[in-house]
Amino acid sequence: MDLYDRISELSKRRGIFFPSFEIYGGLGGFYDYGPIGATLKRNIENKWMKIFVLKEGMVEIESTMILPSVVFEASGHIAHFTDILTKCTACNETYRTDHVIKEAGVEIREGLKAEELDKVIRKKDVQCPKCGGELEKSSPFNLMFKVEIGPYWRSITGYGRPEAAQAQFVDFKRVYSSERERLPLGIAQVGRCLRNEIAPRKGPIRLREFTIIDYEIFFDPDDSSYSRIELLEDQKLRILTSKEQTSGTNRIKEVTVKEALKKGLIGNEIQAYFLALAVRFMKELGVPPEKQRLREQLPEEKAHYSKQTFDQEVWLERWGWTEISGSAYRTNYDVSRHMTYSGKDLRVFKAFDKPKKVRKIIQKPNRELIQEDFGEETKMIIKLLSKSDPQVVKQNFEERGVYELPGPTSLKLYPKHVDFEIIETEATGKYFIPHVIEPSFGVDRVFYSILEYAYTEKGGRVILRIPRDIAPIKALVFPLVNKDGIPELAEKVYNLIIEKDIVARYDGSGSIGKRYARADEIGVPICITIDYDSLKDNTVTLRDLDTWSQIRMKITDLPEKLHRYIKGKKEFNDLGTPYNKNST
RNA sequence: GCGGCCGUGGUCUAACCUGGUUUAGGACAAAGGCCUUCCAAGCCUUUAAUCCGGGUUCAAAUCCCGGCGGCCGCACCA
Questions:
Q1: Residues A301, A178: one domain?
Q2: What three-state secondary structure class fits A501?
Q3: For a 10 Å CB count at each end of chain A, is N or C smaller?
């Protein structure tokens, strides 16, 4: 049995996680969390919130899981989250249609529809790469779950969100103003997401319904500095650059945050800071830094709008390097898309210290040439163009030679269609579309990674060394024997600590050794035993999960000292005086 | 979707190849009791399983077919 099998076995047995609707046979990509797992997962989410949001002075929101289709048209998910698939009529092999075509050496542009791709297949006589058989008619497969909102005779189409992120962009203006217009502004959201994966595998690593934490940090593209960078600038990062991957050497560069920025490995202070924070977060959850790496995505795997994307990967025994979080510099893509689709101005205004003369680009559509190429669509094109930022249009022409108009039509304009003029004007400030750095975490993957690094075996027993601040149950209370008034005192102790909000349970069954063993399996940091001495002097024995060492302390000190211990403000041996009754 | 392997109490498994001695066995866990002065001790009792459907056969956990589900590989993972 490998580590994954042993963790699965433990998880089923002790209520950590297990397949959903198991009594009906289960279904790939769906997992439930049991009593221990559900609390552990929430503790992870809360810790993330504390570190990334509370301590950074940022905010969180909570949005809906179902959104109308227009949001996903704007976000690009309708277009890009769809795979167009085809099947070989002879050998039944399934392919992505665009992949087979490209494999056959035929150049095609992105975003073709199913019928268009099929046309190419017929024209170029593309066949099944495996057996040479004929390919079936293509059909689109969208990885989003489609839902009909409202009764069927007047329903509108919506989708289950495949990420938590869109609401941050859609709600940006509201949150920005309620947070009194400050930048950088981070807006986080932890929430359930849905992706209709074709073939989910790998247990809790690839799910159809899962929890994601999306964090959108909005900032002024002219100022990506982050004041708290000093706190982490000496932290070491293990970076695998895209260059090292393409060259095949795959050497990991170990540099400090400061060096990474200086050498340009990470292009942006905000991104560097939160990458460093992500590494520290996982370290605090028990994944050592040398078992983590930051892999820069290759240009071809990166989304086209992303300037730079890193995957935070953790080494897992069965699956090797596994992505648990990503950090993408998404530029102003999302906000600008929602501007054009909603027609609302989502730019922010920033006043200059004093008014200054600025040169401003304005665009002038070349009506005649547009008319010539697009005929009656001219009016619509000019309207759509007026909603586009001239700077962005010009930049597209310069970099790609073409500008794709927003909206479902995906019409393309070329430099000849638009003239630009630079005018001088006086400005009291500037309007701009904020740029966004997006760290996002797969909570279920973080959860599983923690279990892998917490799982240990000692003398045939399982010990789950979960860091104590996220342990689902903080303390177990045991009566040494079930007689002579000891259970009564033990129950008093139990009540005392749960009254003080310490998550605890009482266990009086079986032998004391058996109870310790049960505690170890679900990572309970502290076991409290009440014995005959407790009746005399009101002291109890505490046992530490990691070392099994024991100390003795006063019952009245329990609540406060336990709180401090759980928060990591005190070490186990400082809780009381050493105790050695258990040596055998 | 394809190919390979697989599916027995809560967990891990035996019996499957070679159908019948099985009332489906064991270990661990769990529940109740006895015992018990700090690491899965012992004793007694109890609960508890052949994924679903069809076929072959006097007889199916076992052989065959189909379905469902899982793991691994391929593909996919915006």
A1: yes
A2: coil
A3: C
Lookup result for tokens 């400082």: A574
ipTM score of complex: 0.90
For the CA of A97 and the C1' of B25, the distance in angstroms is 54
Alpha carbon separation from A361 to A395, A418, A420 (Å, rounded): 11, 12, 7
Largest Cα–Cα distance of chain A, in whole Å?
100
Nucleotide nearest to A486 (CA to C1'): B37
Q: At what angle do helices A3-14 and A512-521 cross, to 10 degrees?
A: 120
pLDDT tens digit sequence for A342-357:
888 899 998 888 777 7
Distance from residue A20's CA to nucleotide B52's C1', rounded to whole Å: 18
| Claim to verify: residue A245 and residue A102 sit in the same structural domain | no
Q: Which nucleotides of B are covered by protein (CB under 7 A)?
A: 1-2, 7, 10-13, 29-32, 35-42, 51, 68-78
Under 8 Å between Cβ of A508 and A529: no
State the nucleotide closest to A543 in CA–C1' terms. B38
| A324 and A357 belong to one structural domain | no
Residue at the smallest CA–C1' distance to nucleotide B73:
A201
pLDDT digits (tens, 9 = 90+) for A25-66: 888 899 999 999 999 999 999 999 999 999 999 999 999 999
Tell me the CA–C1' distance in angstroms for A459 and B14: 26
Pairing of strands A526-530, A504-506: unpaired
- Do A60 and A87 lie in one domain? The reply is no
| Exposed/middle/buried for residue A214 (C-beta within 10 Å: 0-12, 13-18, 19+) | buried
Secondary structure letter of residue A297 according to DSSP: P
Measured distance CA(A260)–CA(A279) in Å, rounded: 14
- Which residues make beta-bridge pairs with A60? A188
Give the whole-angstrom CA distance, residue A308 versus residue A299.
Answer: 9
Q: List the A134 CA – B54 C1' distance (angstroms).
A: 35
**Nucleotide with the nearest C1' to A163 CA:** B78
